[in-house]
């Protein structure tokens, strides 16, 4: 299962504790990190509309923008107290763990708000 894999592979990274309503990054930011949710819930908003929620430990957030070196496509906010890990060199991480990259994109554990999949 991808969530267990990513949590195990990132266990050596420091955890960052977020307060409820704390913004991790904003739409348009030029950050290159990828977030891994350890616990809690993150919400992704684009243009003022919630487009995604991540609540499963091991959810990967921001991988597309980071890997394509594009500005952030949405604002990510912790909607409850949450714990995340930052992957600061995603190109290297996914190159060293190619199976994780493929599975994280193909079977994201995120809840898709717009399409009503839960």
Principal-axes shape call: globular
The CATH first-level class comes to Mainly Beta
Uncertain segments = 105-118
> What distance separates the N and C termini?
18 Å
Give the name of the CATH superfamily: Jelly Rolls
Number of strands: 9
Radius of gyration: 13 Å
Strand order of the largest sheet: 2-7-4-5-9
At CATH's second level, what is the architecture?
Answer: Sandwich
Instruction: Please bin the fraction of helical residues.
Output: 25-40%
Structural class: alpha+beta
> What name does the CATH topology carry?
Jelly Rolls
Mean pLDDT value: 83
What attributes characterize this protein structure?
118 residues; alpha+beta; Jelly Rolls; five-stranded antiparallel β-sheet; four-stranded antiparallel β-sheet; 4 helices; globular; disordered C terminus
């Amino acid at each position: 299962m991808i969530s267990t894999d990513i949590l195990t592979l990132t266990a050596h990274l420091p955890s960052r504790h977020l307060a409820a309503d704390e913004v991790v990054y904003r739409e348009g930011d030029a950050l290159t990190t990828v977030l891994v949710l350890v616990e809690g819930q993150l919400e992704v908003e684009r243009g003022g509309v919630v487009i995604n929620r991540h609540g499963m430990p091991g959810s990967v957030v921001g991988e597309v923008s980071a890997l394509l070196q594009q500005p952030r496509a949405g604002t990510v906010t912790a909607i409850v107290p949450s714990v995340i890990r930052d992957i600061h060199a995603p190109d290297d991480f996914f190159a060293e763990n190619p199976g994780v990259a493929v599975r994280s994109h193909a079977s994201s554990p995120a809840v898709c708000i717009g399409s009503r999949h839960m």
